Amino acid sequence: MADVEIERPEAGIALVRLNRPERLNALSWDLTTALHAALDELDTDNDLRAIVMTGTGRGFCSGLDLADAGRGSNRAKGTKGARSAMRSQKDVAGLPLHLRTIAVPVIAAVNGPAYGGGFALALASDLRVASASAVFCTQFIKLGVSGCDIGVSYLLPKLIGGAKAHELMLTARKVDADEARSLGLVMDVVPDGEVVDRALDVARQITAFSAFATEMTKEVMWANLDAPSLAHAIHLENRTQTLALANETRLPSDPSKITT
Questions:
Q1: How many domains does the chain have?
Q2: CB 30 within 8 A of CB 1
Q3: Which of 115, 128, 102 is nearest to 41 (CA)?
Q4: What tens digit of pLDDT does each residue of 149-184 get?
Q5: In the β-sheet with 106-110, what is the strand arrangement from edge to edge?
Q6: Fewer beta carbons within 10 angstroms: which end of the chain, N or C?
Q7: Strand order in the sheet with 175-176
């Protein structure tokens, strides 16, 4: 079986499945390489409008596969020591950046445990929905390493605030689906077995809008999270709106698809 599978449930939408169910879809180096490759492939599809990412089986992603960690990533072959460790670290830590920079929105359908690196994948997605059995945990500090890894120390405070993020990173406390919704980590919680369908519903809402408008909304939203001032943020918004108004295909082909 492929470590990452891509399905096309309908026009404009891709469903990406992490596919190591026997390991709760833990991030082996092969899965890490496959996920980078899948995102690269999808980012060249000009007809794609949204991605739903989920895990096969009863887990979303349980984090780095410790049984595989010792050999180093596929991109670190031929290196050793600190050089190999740094290349491997950059490989897995590059996944949140990859999710952030891919043109279309990514919706994480969290169908079970999302620990460590799996938590990072969910946080780096643009939207998140969870099944009732979903559980989130930073995990890292339990392994004797820093609780700040794979972008979590940046992404988590942006979503839920610094005080609560510090608590979760320092205690590695598990957060269930209902608490995740109350914290604003996820937009919805649905019964087990329905989370992919809910995420696909969200994807369909997105496909009703123009491709350029959606891409620019994602790009500007992420950029302005780091804007140094309101003036900088508005400057970027003004540039983007001017480009959008000049875009001849800005309106959807079927305005009746737009829901309010």
A1: 2
A2: no
A3: 102
A4: 999 999 999 999 999 999 999 999 999 999 999 999
A5: 4-10, 13-18, 50-55, 106-110, 127-131, 188-190
A6: C
A7: 113-115, 135-137, 175-176
Q: Which domain CATH number covers 121?
A: 3.90.226.10
Residue 189: beta bridge partners? 130
CB atoms near residue 200 (< 10 Å): 18
Global pTM value = 0.92
d(CA 139, CA 147): 7
* Residue 48 DSSP label: -
The reply to whether 89 and 190 lie within a common domain is yes
Same domain, 47 and 127: yes
In terms of residues, how long is the chain? 260
Measured on CA atoms in the order 159, 196, 208, 13, is the torsion positive or negative?
positive
Q: What angle do CA 33, 37, 42 make, to 5 degrees?
A: 150
Q: Give the pairing of strands 188-190 and 4-10.
A: unpaired
Q: How far apart are alpha carbons 220 and 164 in whole angstroms? A: 26
Amino acid in the structure at residue 171: T
Q: Are residues 213 and 151 in the same domain?
A: no
Q: Domain of residue 213: give its range.
A: 209-257
Would you say the C-alpha torsion 203, 205, 210, 216 has a positive or negative sign? negative
Q: At what angle do helices 211-224 and 230-245 cross, to 10 degrees?
A: 170
Tens digit of pLDDT for each residue in 17-48?
999 999 999 999 999 999 999 999 999 999 99
